[in-house]
Automatic annotation (TrEMBL), chain A:
This is Molybdopterin-dependent oxidoreductase. It holds the Pfam family Oxidored_molyb. The chain crosses the membrane at residues 25-48, 86-106, 127-146, 158-176. InterPro entries: OxRdtase_Mopterin-bd_dom (IPR000572), OxRdtase_Mopterin-bd_sf (IPR036374). Residues 274-410 form the Oxidoreductase molybdopterin-binding domain. It comes from the Bacteria.
Amino acid sequence: MDAPHLPTSPGFWRSPLRGPRFTSVLGLVLLVGITVLFVTGLLSYAAYNPGLSPVNDKTPDKGILGFYLFAWPTHPHWLYRLTQGVHVTLGITLIPVLLAKLWSVIPRLFALPPARSLAHALERISLLLLVGGGLFEFVTGVLNVQLDYVFPGSFYPLHFYGAWVFFAAFLAHAVLKTPAAVRNVRRMRGSEPAAVEGELVSPRPAPPTVSRRGALWFVGGGSALLFTTTVGQDFDGLRRTALLAPHGGAVPVSGPNGFQINKTAAYAGIDPAETSAEAWRLVVTGRTGTVRLSRAQLAELPLHSSALPIACVEGWSTSDQWWRGVRLRDLAALVGHEGDPPDLFVESLQRHGAFRRAALRANQVADPRSLLALYVNGEDLSPDHGHPARVIVPAAPGVLNTKWVARLTFGDL
Amino acid sequence: MRRRFRIPFGSPFQLLLLACSFALAAYAGVRLLADDWFGVALWLVGAALLHDLVFLPLYAVADRAVVRGLEAGRRRAWAMYVRVPAALSGLLLLVWFPLISGTVDRRYRSATALSPDGFLARWLLITAVLFAASALLLALRVRRATKRRPSAVH
């Protein structure tokens, strides 16, 4: 009757590790971990201030999925560095847990009968969204941070809407399974006898090559290895320990401009002729009209300093750099917005790139640490860091810190 | 009396929960599929199928081959000494494949001004260290075991 050479037979699956306890531990880790990933992901979307202007919003047809959006604050200045660093680093760290979890429940995929009831049939369809959606989110994220844009479309809508599809299935799964998982883990921690039951337990287990505890250490070891070779890309002092992460290892150049670059001037299509002292003029428009300023004229305005990081949506960041330039609110005052600066529309010289135009909210413009920077770490900005001038705003995602700024337009957007 | 075949419904709570979940998934799903519905559906379903029907069986078969090979030499207990470094090295390759394989070399270099050359070398070195550490631990364990059980035959 039982044909153990077919995966539909419980006897086909012989690992003695499989069982409700192993799956429950991994499931609870993912419950917490994926919840953090989802929340930090939603925060990242809010950090772009998508409600402010269409240029900030790569998912304009989001509907109610943007219900939670709020004006992104500028305090603490490392806020986005933290939330997005956690999002990407934790996501990479959870990969072994996800793989182990999927391994632990694989017999269920083949279990017969395919459906015991309508609810069971629907649950199995929901599991396709859970597994497919989860892998989709992990794969698109991992590819995007490596600049490998092979997925079918733009990263932002895929990862954002994909997250909601995945989360819908995740939520149902969590509600259905968490109580049992908690019970299993409680039982494990208590001194109850090792009851061997549950459909995941192999009816003819092979002799073990590792204990269940050992297997959990194995999964944790995989996570630890990924974590320690990735987390360094968020700290200048640890960068060399991020052995395989895209922004680990070396700095691109030495000297004051020697910190990580998202997109170089050449990549963004910046023509050096347009950024020369003779050619470049900053065009500032506001209530009282338009002012054109050369870089030398800008440098004669009151200059201020801010220590702020660059934090990228790809999950890497720099430690605080020492920027020097003109306050955005002083530039607003120059064109008639005294005291209470409005929103700001920033345009770059760059030819391509999704964020060659970006909008900043009034609270970001008003922050005294928000600068149109001319210098960094005591030297002129290098072309790759945005020479002649770039925006730097506390807690904002890297792409809103526009480089090679050509035009600033103050006013309601 | 006629007996009809009835489909069992299952838990009503579960049905309501799943209906709610599907409605939310569909709301996001129509937006997810708005541009290239076929490509996205292929990626989403393909990811699950590729993992469950190709990737997982492949590594399970490889693992079984290792355990069988060790069994043949009565060394089954050594499986973890092979499994751990192989799995950790494979995991790093899986996650960082675009960088290690060099498929994004040109874009990576021109966008970040960083050199893409070190990834393969670093992965190989990490792999070497993992296997070396495992071999060292195994050698220590074997040595300790032989000391504890001195040979009776001379």
